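Researcher: I'm preparing a figure for a lab meeting and need a structural model of a single chain. I don't have an experimental structure, so a prediction will have to do for now. The sequence is pasted below. Please return the structure as tokens so I can convert it later.
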Amino acid sequence: MIFVTTGVSSIPFDRLIKKMDEIAATYRAPVFMQTGYNGYKPRNAQHVPILTRKEYLTYMQQADLVVSHAGAGTTMDLILSQKRCILVPRMKKFREHLNDHQLEHIKGWGERLGIKVVYDINELDDLVRQIETIPVPSPRAQTRDELIHAIRQMIVSSVGG
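Model: Understood. Here is the structure written out token by token.
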């Protein structure tokens, strides 16, 4: 199963949800989406606007792949659970957020921790279909100091933006 999450922002993330709905139409396994409110409603996947923390963690643990916005909390959950994932940062230019703090905090350290990041939504289809090539995030591969620095930068970017 692929679990898609957009976080709790009140701003729709239609760019991600529409693309994952398109992928779900022909994907070999179920796709479940947490879509947020007031946005595009998927036709090819089960979906809900919001999940409780417990439901969210359950879907994350059951998923073979998580496709997510690049929010600080979700990113940390993915790293700590060592779940195969693809992050799609919300971008101001698409009116998905008020600023580009998701871009700022994921650049640089995301890939060092083994996280795939998609900036061009058209690249998502090929990446999802090559699930076996997506690495599991591995904070253990980094030194303690590098991980602490990455977490601090993520928090500073999120609080400041």
